[in-house]
Every structure is written in structure tokens, then in C-alpha cells.
Design goal:
Blueprint (H helix, E strand, L loop, with lengths): L13 H20 L9 H41 L8
């Protein structure tokens, strides 16, 4: 079975593509997070959105912290069990 060689395409204008991507993201998200029009979203809605984002980030940090703590606890527990195992009693 013959194999096909794939040549890598040179990356051209990656920095300008990256900059354009973030400009597009900014154009989409700015009206939601920073409304400037008077008839736009109410201030309480904006504060609620920022509060929910903050709550989400704190929840993610808490979940990762609990998982890391659990990992270290389990590692120490298994280490103690292996260390105190009496291999001479095995039959």
C-alpha cells in the first residue's frame, strides 16, 4: 500500500489572522459585557452577567482545588498502606 507524503503548508500572516480573530471576538462580545447604548441592556443585567461569570470562574477554581487535594490525599493514603503492609504474612 503506497503512502502519501503530506507537505506542511507555510504559515502566512498568522499574526494578522490572530489579531483579526481577536478583533472579531471583541466586536461580538463588547456590546454584551460593556453596553454603551442607553436603550441597551439594563445595568442590573450587566452586573448579573459579570457576577455569574465570576461565580463560574470561582466554581471552576474550587472544583480543580478539591480534585487536586483529593489526588494528594489518595497518594498519601496509598503510600501509607503500601508502607505498612506486612509482606511476611502472605501465604
Amino acid at each position: 500500500m503506497p503512502t502519501q507524503a503530506v507537505q506542511a503548508q507555510p504559515l502566512t500572516n498568522t499574526s494578522s489572522t490572530f489579531i483579526q480573530f481577536w478583533k472579531d471576538v471583541k466586536a461580538i462580545t463588547l456590546p454584551y459585557w460593556y453596553p454603551t447604548e442607553p436603550e441597551g441592556r439594563a445595568f442590573s443585567d450587566v452586573i448579573r452577567a459579570w457576577g455569574m461569570l465570576t461565580l463560574l470562574l470561582l466554581s471552576i477554581i474550587a472544583a480543580v482545588s478539591v480534585t487536586a487535594f483529593n489526588s494528594f490525599t489518595n497518594r498519601n493514603l496509598v503510600g501509607v498502606i503500601v508502607q505498612e503492609k506486612d509482606y511476611s504474612k502472605q501465604g
